[in-house]
Amino acid sequence: MAHTFINQIEPGQAVDDIFLVKEPILRSTTRGDLYIAMYLCDRTGQLNGRMWQATEAIYNALPKPGFAHILGRSEIYQNNLQIIVNNISIVDTSKVSLDDFLPRTTKDTDKLFKEVKDVLGRIKNSQLKAIVDEFLADDELMKKFRTAPAAIKIHHNYLGGLLEHTHNTLNVAVAILPFYPQVQDDLVLAALFLHDIGKTEELVYDIAFSYTNTGQLLGHIAQALLMIKQKADGLEDKGKKIDQNTMDSLNHIILSHHGQYEFGSPKLPATPEAFLVNYIDDLDAKLNQVKSAIDGESPDSDWTSWQKTLETKLYRKRIEQ
Amino acid sequence: MAHTFINQIEPGQAVDDIFLVKEPILRSTTRGDLYIAMYLCDRTGQLNGRMWQATEAIYNALPKPGFAHILGRSEIYQNNLQIIVNNISIVDTSKVSLDDFLPRTTKDTDKLFKEVKDVLGRIKNSQLKAIVDEFLADDELMKKFRTAPAAIKIHHNYLGGLLEHTHNTLNVAVAILPFYPQVQDDLVLAALFLHDIGKTEELVYDIAFSYTNTGQLLGHIAQALLMIKQKADGLEDKGKKIDQNTMDSLNHIILSHHGQYEFGSPKLPATPEAFLVNYIDDLDAKLNQVKSAIDGESPDSDWTSWQKTLETKLYRKRIEQ
Amino acid sequence: MAHTFINQIEPGQAVDDIFLVKEPILRSTTRGDLYIAMYLCDRTGQLNGRMWQATEAIYNALPKPGFAHILGRSEIYQNNLQIIVNNISIVDTSKVSLDDFLPRTTKDTDKLFKEVKDVLGRIKNSQLKAIVDEFLADDELMKKFRTAPAAIKIHHNYLGGLLEHTHNTLNVAVAILPFYPQVQDDLVLAALFLHDIGKTEELVYDIAFSYTNTGQLLGHIAQALLMIKQKADGLEDKGKKIDQNTMDSLNHIILSHHGQYEFGSPKLPATPEAFLVNYIDDLDAKLNQVKSAIDGESPDSDWTSWQKTLETKLYRKRIEQ
Amino acid sequence: MAHTFINQIEPGQAVDDIFLVKEPILRSTTRGDLYIAMYLCDRTGQLNGRMWQATEAIYNALPKPGFAHILGRSEIYQNNLQIIVNNISIVDTSKVSLDDFLPRTTKDTDKLFKEVKDVLGRIKNSQLKAIVDEFLADDELMKKFRTAPAAIKIHHNYLGGLLEHTHNTLNVAVAILPFYPQVQDDLVLAALFLHDIGKTEELVYDIAFSYTNTGQLLGHIAQALLMIKQKADGLEDKGKKIDQNTMDSLNHIILSHHGQYEFGSPKLPATPEAFLVNYIDDLDAKLNQVKSAIDGESPDSDWTSWQKTLETKLYRKRIEQ
Amino acid sequence: MAHTFINQIEPGQAVDDIFLVKEPILRSTTRGDLYIAMYLCDRTGQLNGRMWQATEAIYNALPKPGFAHILGRSEIYQNNLQIIVNNISIVDTSKVSLDDFLPRTTKDTDKLFKEVKDVLGRIKNSQLKAIVDEFLADDELMKKFRTAPAAIKIHHNYLGGLLEHTHNTLNVAVAILPFYPQVQDDLVLAALFLHDIGKTEELVYDIAFSYTNTGQLLGHIAQALLMIKQKADGLEDKGKKIDQNTMDSLNHIILSHHGQYEFGSPKLPATPEAFLVNYIDDLDAKLNQVKSAIDGESPDSDWTSWQKTLETKLYRKRIEQ
Amino acid sequence: MAHTFINQIEPGQAVDDIFLVKEPILRSTTRGDLYIAMYLCDRTGQLNGRMWQATEAIYNALPKPGFAHILGRSEIYQNNLQIIVNNISIVDTSKVSLDDFLPRTTKDTDKLFKEVKDVLGRIKNSQLKAIVDEFLADDELMKKFRTAPAAIKIHHNYLGGLLEHTHNTLNVAVAILPFYPQVQDDLVLAALFLHDIGKTEELVYDIAFSYTNTGQLLGHIAQALLMIKQKADGLEDKGKKIDQNTMDSLNHIILSHHGQYEFGSPKLPATPEAFLVNYIDDLDAKLNQVKSAIDGESPDSDWTSWQKTLETKLYRKRIEQ
To answer: How would DSSP label each residue in E161-177?
Structure first.
């Protein structure tokens, strides 16, 4: 059954669909009856939900947050649409089509992933190739890599965003590298592939985008370092030891790719490759952020709202052709 | 007559050549005789020069700094080579082959300039095209554009450096633009061509690299703004008025291309084009700086000396193939 | 007909007057009827307006924002006064007495402007005098100069504020200059007159105070530079070329008058005159801001609310005489 | 006997004069004989001094630093003038004319002090008047006030500098106050008189300019607070208690007069008077610093050397009249 | 009569108790009748209060804020509990049990104070001992010292907090000092006792926690300096003069104990003792702040909300034993 | 044979000893003969060495830097002592008593290490205990742990410094922990033991103190993370898997122990344990730095020289007892 999206519900309509239930609260009316207030959400928005004649048992059973099948009816209350919930039953996340609830890239992720692998096929250095192949061969991880967002906020904050961002940075690198012949191509390509790989562990995105405990305590930079060590240890067990200089050079790019201490890089770029990765990553993230901000607001004004992290409004008026 | 370079002079050799004379001082010996101490320089280094039996008239006639034809002989004094000057005669700068005295790009500037014009030929927007053509048609300015360094220190600090840097940023832009379709290509190309054009007025580089008074008081960003207005006024006089939005969009990129207030940009980037120009400019400057630092020091150590503006040493060891 | 101010309207009163209409929204009631919610404003405040039985055509015709003649009646709704709009007709801005809608200096601007001209009459340097006179002779610009606010927020943010601020800084300069004999008086006076002249182009203030596109993209500092060049070009056309050093010295003060990079100055003060203009400008702006904050809040407390840009509350209790 | 200044000594001249002896070191020659190396200084410069056939006793008796009467002869050694010391005898500081050894204002300090008192005579508020008079009546302190420099480096760093700086800020205040009628004149005048009074205790300037232990540990701001309390306590003992609000308002200006935390102000300005004192103090200090830098270097160049605290070179070229 | 706490009031209950009245406003209903809206508060929370049929005289008599005896009844209005006030009578603060209205340490303050005195008994240096004893002998001050909070927000922000914080820092010092034998114990103990003593004057906490005018204008650091001088002057009057070095060393620790200029310290730590006091103070404040944040929020989540001053959320999940 | 220290060599003395040879340069005299200039060093200082009649072969064989046995004689040249080298033979580092060449803690490292193990014996948590024991059982690593300095400069910059610093921080923790019962002791102790363990890999200290390539590219924080993972992997192989929360909690403290981004911590402290470790580490490092600065300079002055990282001079005068 196709999902009826929040932003399509009209007043007085019967509701029989799965929604994400957030922040349920058990309250009592002035007469002392219990009721549950909650938000019902999908990727198009959220509405207030009210379940009258609720019990503490129903409340305790509710996910906080989580998915539930809602039977009820929409109505207008104080000029706002809300949903009166007659019946609520928990739905396991595995039964839910995530696409209805989480924003997702509009690009074809199979195609993007194939192109990422094509670009990585250019790597000639046998050690970096071995590390990259070890990651590509990790099916479970690659599945996450193709699904994860690149961030919770700011840029590429949608399912597939990590892949889209990685794909784009690799393309930019391939285009730019010929102009900087002193830069070691293989290091740049391997590092761009892995620079945000830690986000597969840093973020959860089953219901909404948030940080894992590990992600919040360590961050995706430290996480990536540990993951690369894991793969290198695996290679060593198979008799293919990665030499120290190659490990150091790759790890340094990961550690320094945010470019500044205050952005969480414990090391500043100290190799041509580290500088290039830092710039390509930042450029792609910023242009995605700028595009989202401009596309995400009404085109009535020449200016977007104030963008806090950019310390400016953005100008969207184009020049005459 | 080919110039004998400073770093090729041996002890006990006759000297009969043009050098850059810097910081001449008139001193008296303990016996009360006057002599002149000075530095004799070219692009390979500098030596102490001593002219005994000097007069105040000779001293007053000396350029401070400037070129002079030196007759004399080299000798060792306290383990250092110096030049005893027997005769000194002023030489007009126009008679001097600047290449012997100022570092110069190793690239073919005619080829670079042709390629710059080719890239600018891609601009379709008639107004931006008109502005760019107005600059290209200014022969005197283009001569400076092909000769000027891009900076006194830090990056592309050699004759032809401005052209080389502009050329490279345009190439990078052409390579990257396909990946950011929302960005207006013509604005980016025109802005990259002009982003440092003010350096033709900001810097002097006839004898050594330094700032003009105007350059030091206004900076090349404000300078570029005034130069663009000059060309636009010229176009208006010819009946081709540039509309306000095009002027504003171009000027905004110039004003914001340093990306941060503390780097002298009075405005922060507020358009996709401004972000892209800021990143491409910075990336090209930094990679040139990193390359110069690595190439400019002895390869005996894996690390360069401390790079103050980068807050790190640079690692030059390459990975095994 | 005298305007009845928002803060004088009583409940149950007939309304027949011009107001500034802001943020009109077309909504439907729970019965499906369309109505328009809007704000009705003048310089004394704003009230909710509701027009029942509205049509899409009426809504589309409304300015967003703009002036309209309102026929209707005031009423209390949920303890708040609102206006029920029976008829709404657009009014051209030219028909409106701006004084009713925008805050305005309490000073006599004719007198202020005359005194500004008197002070500028002290300038003896023929070149600076020529530039200043060129500005004074530009009637259209001087009209704006006498009307513009000095800022949207923070200080002198009312009609005539630019003139009042310029007038005060010139007076302070004349009083202080005798104590700093090394400072070139003419440069200081000319620079203070022109330091914020770009605000005439940076700001719009016909309905409310806001930035023009040019203003937001370039800022008033770059704008002033272009305006001074315009006048100098005009003088050159008339055979009176301003020499480079005078132009540079004046332009440098304009560029550096905010005193710090992070306040949008692309150059730091490098002449005694630039330091003096920076201090006088800042002092006058700050004391106006402090005065407004203290006068603008209830005197019940010894302290004003927290002033974000000053990072402190302000103490308003005076000492005993 | 008039002092022969360091910068007037010629080679081969007999020396019989008092100098400041700095950094004496006892060394042995290659033959094992002891000698003393030292600097001999006055306010015009310093020379190397050498005392051959020295003993440990002579060395131990030397001040480090301090004044001594030197008998000897000047000679050239390796192209530098030095003084061979035949006899050295300690001189008590009280016997020395400090003017020969420390830079001093060129202004008439009696006149300056009289004018300071005249300006302070404008104070009408009886409590502030009482405090100010208590300071003026403290002869010992006023003697220091008339002699102390305003700083060790940067600005007004010469004997009488504190008085000159205070005098100038009071004059500027009197000139500016009419333009800011909301500001309480008496508070500004009293605060300007006392804002740097702590420097009389913070600095020593008997031989050279340096910090006292108390000065370095507490700073002149905290020092001033304690001195004002001392005077207020004295007034209270005489039956003239200063009320809390007056004390707080005055102390607040002292505490905040550096304007920023990083300049050692533990409080930011929070009254109109505190802002005004901060600006006037800073303006006068900066203009004195700029003047000193410009006057202190050779006028051959249009630019001074780099001024670290101002983050710029200074431009000294004046406009044509 | 025991106070009925705000968070225990049920709908429809008679109210007859003392509350803190905050922000009373006199309003008129749509019928023109006057009523008073106010908040009724104690340390457990606040409710809206409404007094119908009010008069201007009643309103004028109300404290703003202050304590009042309220007769009335609770009711639900728009789902929120509020209190209808039938009668209101002012209550003098001295009649009120502050414990019902202000948060208070859960520790036994008599015991804490005794232990503080015990630790201070370790001081052997006669001068520091004299100063400390002078403070301990000031009964009025010690009463405040035992009652004051250590801050309005952030850490130890409850009655007795100053004592609790001081007590804990002294204990930590006694435990750590043996590991740093170069540190002068007596200085550290005396300075820790007095480092926040100025908060007794900086803060008021009779009704709610706020700053005194003196506190806000001077800050507790400057305040402490003046209080120590007061005690030292008292000792000098009794013939026990404290020597300058001891005063300076103690005062320096007070002035620098915030460790950084931007935290209001006009001097940076320059003695081992100053560093130790800075670290112990900061450590104890931060751990108290962290504990409060973790304890103060629901343990449902592994993370607290964002802590602005710490720039992070806090992780509360403990490791398995 | 006991080493004769550099600072004990007298002029004209025969030299027959091992020295550290630094920066050897092959030069030719004015007559064209080759000679080698070098520095000869031990932990007490360095002297110039000159080997006349040198050959390119001798020069090439020299370590740069490294140890060599020197036969020769001391002499005075231009008032400085230097050593004329007659014979030079390379010495393997393993034959050298490092104590003569590198500064070393004065403490008994066996005793310190035993006490560290005693403190770690307090850890009850089985998982943390397992990790700690895994490190303690790694003999090679523990040997480095007992020898390494804690830093190249700033604090504990001598052999054994890492152990001494770790020992002291553990002692401080044991003393403080009772006052903060909410803090998990075991986590603090384990984290303090391991917080700088990465320095065993970050630094080399066989001849002089410097960074390894890995150390400079990754830093000791990232290094520690990888080392802990190595040990945890080893435990997992033995069937003792460390749970994720324990790993995260420990790793978080390591990552955040510098307390600020700009000090190279990619995460800010977010647990009570992380705050405590950050403070104890910083306190111990700073007090060691302060002690070294005070002890390392002549006690003639009350103040040390300017300490750049502390932004102050240090005051060494103690109070009277």
So the answer is: HHHHHHHHHHHHHHHHG
Give alpha helix (H) positions in D95-160.
Answer: 109-120, 126-136, 139-147
Look up residue D65 and give its two tokens: 């630093």
Contact between chains at E317 and A216 (C-beta distance less than 8 A):
no
Write out pLDDT tens, residues E61-119: 888 788 999 999 998 776 678 899 999 999 988 888 878 888 889 899 999 999 999 99
Backbone angles phi, psi at E87, to 5 degrees: -145, 140
Could you tell me which chains touch chain B, where touching means 3 or more CB pairs under 8 A? A, C, D, F
Contact F275 E268 (CB under 8 A): no
- The reply to whether the predicted model has a pTM over 0.90 is no
F90 touches chain D (CB under 8 A): no
**Number of inter-chain CB pairs under 8 A, C vs E:** 13
Q: Do C79 and E27 touch (CB under 8 A)?
A: yes
Interchain proximity D319–C287, CB inside 8 Å: no
* Residues E13, E17: Cα–Cα separation, whole Å: 12
Is A107 an 8 Å CB contact of chain B?
A: no
Is B30 in contact with D79 (Cβ distance < 8 A)?
Answer: yes
The Cα–Cα gap between B124 and C99 comes to 47
- Roughly how many angstroms between the first and final C-alpha of chain F, as a whole number? 47
Q: What angle do CA F218, F222, F223 make, to 5 degrees?
A: 80
Q: Using an 8 Å CB-CB cutoff, list chain D residues near F302.
A: 213
Q: Do E313 and A216 touch (CB under 8 A)?
A: yes
Tell me which chain D residues have a C-beta less than 8 angstroms from the C-beta of C269: 310, 312
pLDDT value for E306: 87
**In a 10 Å sphere around its CB, with 0-12 CB exposed, 13-18 middle and 19+ buried, how is residue E97 labelled?**
exposed
Assess contact for D93 and D15: CB atoms under 8 A.
no
Query: Are residues E314 and F271 in contact, defined by beta-carbon separation less than 8 angstroms?
Result: yes
Q: Taking CB atoms and an 8 Å cutoff, what residues of chain E touch F172?
A: 176, 179
Q: Are B167 and B115 in contact (CB under 8 A)?
A: yes
Nearest CA in chain E to C78: E30
Q: Which of F123, C232, B286 is nearest to A176 (CA)?
A: B286
- Report CA-CA distances (Å) from B193 to B115, B187, D272, E175, F321: 12, 10, 49, 67, 74
Q: List the end-to-end C-alpha distance of chain D, in Å, as a whole number.
A: 47
Q: Tell me how many helices (H) and strands (E) chain B has.
A: 10, 7
Contacts of E259 in chain D (CB under 8 A): none
**Interval C9-44: pLDDT, tens:** 888 889 999 999 988 887 766 566 788 889 998 887
CB contact under 8 A, E283 and F286: no
Tell me if F20 sits within 8 A of F65, measured CB to CB: yes
Chain D with chain E: Cβ pairs closer than 8 A: 78
Pairing of strands B14-28, B203-204: unpaired
E303 contacts A216? CB cut-off 8 A:
yes
Return the structure tokens found at A5: 């999206």
Report which of D296, D300, D314 is spatially closest to residue D103, judged by C-alpha positions.
D296
Contact: D303, B30; criterion CB under 8 Å: no
Per DSSP, which regions of F249-292 are E strands? none
Cβ within 8 Å of A, B 172-191: 172, 175-176, 179-180, 182-184, 186-187
Residues whose CB falls within 8 Å of the CB of residue F247, separated by 6 or more in sequence, listed in order: F228, F232
For chain E, the average pLDDT equals: 91
What sign does the CA torsion over B237, B242, B243, B247 have?
negative
What is d(CA D107, CA D114) in angstroms, rounded to the nearest whole number? 13
Cβ within 8 Å of residue E262, ≥6 positions away = D261, D262
